[in-house]
Amino acid sequence: MGITGLSKLLGDYAPGCMKENEIKNYFGRKVAIDASMSIYQFLIAVRQDGSQLMSEDGETTSHIMGMFYRTIRMLENGIKPVYVFDGKPPEMKSGELSKRKERREDAQKELDKATEAGDSENIEKFNRRLVKVTKQHNDDCKELLKYMGVPYVEAPCEAEAQCASLVKAGKVYAVGTEDMDALTFGSNVLLRHLTFSEARKMPIKEFHMNRVLVGLGLSQDEFIDLCILLGCDYCDSIRGIGPKRAIELIKQHRTIDEIIKHLDKKKYAVPEDWMFKEARRLFQEPEVTDPADLDLKWSDPDEDGLIEYMCTQKNFSEERIRNGIKKISKARSGTTQGRLDNFFTVQSTTSSTKKRKAEETKGGKNKKAKGGFKGKPK
User: Sheet of 174-176: strands edge to edge?
Assistant: First the structure.
């Protein structure tokens, strides 16, 4: 779920924190990708005839093909992706997971009704709601990435937290995910729509954490409390407090602790045994693998391994897979040069101009003092 309504709130209160970009502008960038989010996108995607991709034995393979081609698209644009897979969910997420289970049970009941009525539109709608990323889906994609020469990380807990830690450590430039809580975990840069298909023609939205904080006038800890008020995966929020009221309260009182002290309890019911402090700590100190212990390496594709896995085991067309391998190899040879901004520190135009003008003024005064004209020049 991420953080409820955060993207819209930032658009309203801190529009300068986001810019739109084309994928080609990320040439040479390393990006940590939330693997589960990507796999989910591929699983709910259907072909034009309304069916999912299947192998001969009836196994769903949409996620494998999606991961293969979407990764190639990033590699062709000079991006070096590293996929991060979820570990065990934190205990605090159990409430959210229970809600998701209930929603799936409701969706199954609705699907049964739609199937009985022959309602194709609702059959597709509720089928999508029943999609869940499984361990097998993850294992399939890890196997694929290994043969493609693309690194992946198995997070001990939440993938977004591990992705954010890689950004903060300077291992990668940004987190690629649709969940806004990568910012709450402290990622300096968040990219949305990076793993969307090219056919959707949606620009990549790039959020910068420092501009978020400046735009909202908050510290990182105050921003975390705002996100908890908006609604996160780890605890309930105060019913009746929407985004506008949440930002007003945080700016006025700066912490949830102070908000509770001054809140009209008759108007706003604070959840009983509200675990906002535990949620705050989880965002501040998430369980992650130390990025210093992770050696991220991109290598040439294993052509024989890919053919065996994708064609022999998963029944994909050998011609298509070999064409894909050629694209990976070509992309690998074309991205050996780095970005210029990895080698040079670019000073702002304003500061450079001011410095130059100051030097010119100083130089002019010196010239005048040493050899200024007396009387009219000849």
Answer: 18-21, 204-208, 189-192, 174-176, 30-34, 80-85, 152-154
- Judged against a pLDDT cut of 80, whether residue 322 lies above it is answered with yes
Torsion angle defined by CA atoms of residues 171, 172, 176 and 181, in that order, rounded to the nearest 10 degrees = 50
How many angstroms separate the CA atoms of 248 and 238, rounded?
14
What DSSP string runs through 62-85? HHHHHHHHHHHHHHHTT-EEEEEE
Cα 100 from Cα 104, distance rounded (Å): 6
Question: By C-alpha distance, which of 351, 373, 11, 31 is closest to 193?
Answer: 31
Taking residue 231's Cβ as centre, other Cβ atoms within 10 Å add up to 20
Q: What is the pLDDT of residues 247-276, one digit of tens each?
A: 999 999 999 999 999 999 889 989 989 999
In terms of Cβ atoms closer than 10 Å to its own Cβ (0-12, 13-18, 19+), residue 361 is exposed
Question: Average pLDDT, stretch 100-105?
Answer: 64
Q: 313 Cβ partners below 8 Å, 6+ apart? A: none
Q: Give the whole-angstrom CA distance, residue 374 versus residue 299.
A: 72
Look at residue 193 in the predicted model and tell me its pLDDT. Answer: 94
pLDDT band, very low/low/confident/very high, at 103 (cuts 50, 70, 90): low
Q: For residues 90 and 234, what is the distance between their CA atoms, to the nearest angstrom?
A: 8
Whole-angstrom distance, CA of residue 378 vs CA of residue 376: 6
pLDDT (tens digit per residue) in 114-161: 677 776 666 666 666 667 889 999 999 999 999 999 999 999 999 999
Measure CA 255 to chain center.
26
Q: Which of 140, 314, 63, 182 is nearest to 173 (CA)?
A: 182
The pair of three-digit structure tokens given for residue 54, joined into one six-digit string:
């299947």
User: Region 23-43: what's the mean pLDDT?
Assistant: 94
Q: Which amino acid is at 64?
A: I
Residue whose C-alpha is closest to residue 134's, from 20, 213, 39? 39
